[in-house]
Give the backbone structure.
Amino acid sequence: MSLTFKPRPRGGRWPVALAWLAVLLLVISALLMGGAGPAYRLEWLSLGQSFSLLHRGALLAVGAAFVAVVALLIAGACRRGKPALASLLVIAAAVAIVAPPLQMRELARSVPPIHDITTDLADPPAFVALAEARRAAPNALDYPRAFAEAQRSGYPNLGPLTIARPLPEVRDAAAALARARGWSIAVVSERRLEAVATTRWFGFEDDIVIRLTPSAAGTRVDMRSASRLGRSDLGTNAARIQTFLEDLAARLSA
């Protein structure tokens, strides 16, 4: 009777063990970063704790990528295809996980550190229906005058829109567009619309007011978008106003 021994793979268990360690670190990282938003939205964690969870998750993703690089080098030297492939996938996934926070950090450096944007710096549209909600929030109810210069320099092209259509038609189109965006409508009156936009991940609430003014050229549309929480909005409110006005003009010209 003869016994046949299966040759031991080159490198032993190290390539597989390191690849699995990288996968485990990546999974934990994804759970921490993915759960930070829902945990804050469900009031399980404070905002500071949620951001700390994001930071730790990002660090774990970097650690997973480092372990995966080591596993890849060992697997490559030992000619172990499966651990090498798993390591490559972990590296790619880690880059994909870490890239958005890095992009957000760069974006924060490129836009003004403000959270309240308006198309009319001289007379910003005021919140009426949402006034109580804003008074209860950390950020101010009124447009902070100190933001005006930063807004002028950061968003020089942001201004009111005049549409050659009667006011009721513009108001109805604006309300329809707001609902299509999933905003929660607080009030639609003759010359005003107020709504709340809620982000999906963290559930941050931004308040929006649209003011309509009849003019000889048609209807002037002024808009204000303000975050309830946080110093910088990473350009979200300005982008919201710009895209809304562009889409409103396109809808009414179609």
Q: What stands out?
A: The radius of gyration is 26 Å. Residues 14-110 form one domain.
